[in-house]
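Justification of computing resources. Each target in the renewal requires a structure prediction run like the one illustrated here; the chain below, 181 residues long, is used simply to show the kind of job we budget for.
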Amino acid sequence: MSTVLYTRHLVEHRYGRPLEDLQRDGAHGGSGDPVLPIVLRRLGGLAETNAHARAARRNLDAAWQRCRSGEHALDDLVLRYAAEVVDLERQEQSEAEAVWDLLDVHLLLDQQPATHRPPARRTGPAPGDEDLMAIARQVAARLPRLNREALRQGLRDRGIHVSNRRLGTVLQRLRAERDPH
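Resulting structure tokens:
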């Protein structure tokens, strides 16, 4: 799954609605979420960077095929396109991480202290917490020592990025499950 597709699915999962609905709400300003317009703008930039990276990969492939056919003058062109692909892939990863960070901000804003929370709001775990806990249990089972950084790295290896606050909550729950005393 491409970074842009994964990020889109993550946005839809965190907001609980398809991207088209989110864009419609964002265009009309009806979401009430201050983070949503920024997420949508960053997601659009990520999609644009992804399109540029795909075009650069096609250019690199075409130049490489011509170079292999014996046109040695194209060596510099292949190197230039390869450098462009590397730069765009780094930019794409950086933009995706910015969206992931914004989603963490959205979660933090959504998890206001109980004293400030309107009574009609849910008091249960945030969406996806049980999914996160299930994956965290799998990661923790393979760790010789359960600590914050090892758990964070294990989750990142599976493509899951969580905020420090959420990671701390998961770590506390895992430790409580391991040692119920």
